[in-house]
Amino acid sequence: MKFLHEVGTVGFAGAVCAQLVLSLAADGRxxxxxxxxxxxxxxxxxWMLLPSLLLVLLSGLLAMVAHTAYLSAGWAxxxxxxxxxxxxxxxxxxxxxxxxxxxxxxxIAAGDESSAHILPRVVRHERGGLGVLLFLSVVNVxxxxxxxxxxxxxxxxxxxxxxxxxxxxxxxPEPAPLAAPDVAIATDADEERAxxxxxxxx
Length: 202
Fold this sequence. Notes:
Blueprint: H1 2-25, H2 31-66, H3 74-109, H4 119-168, H5 188-195
């Protein structure tokens, strides 16, 4: 799941960048070339942008179901909400304008310029949507990288804290040895004196 999620994220970011580059490079081109580039932008949106985004969304939801730890992680829910917002923005702010711009540019290339005045507004709307999507994708990647690392760092600090506390606490003083009681050592002379009979005084 993680591999599919990363593949979808890379594909989505690449599709957004490709559409932006093609949209900027198409400015000032002749009508026929412009129509061809607009068709290429639409193809990138249909065959790369949307499938990659759906792959990111589905793999992320399946990963949350497979690993119950993600269900209690706030950053995972934030990523899920951001991905849904990106999907909505892609459909209404990128895919729709790309279809409209491709249709208008094809009419202009065929000689029908009745809708030419709408094209700049549609292209501007499309570029704005692509910029927002690129920003949200960067935020999603940064959130996914930063949050797990911060959790691992806090866990490592919690594991190291008992060792640091034990190393910094002073060792208790050793108990003083108990003094040996004074015991009189009996000598041979004392034993001889004890067994000597006591003289009787008359």
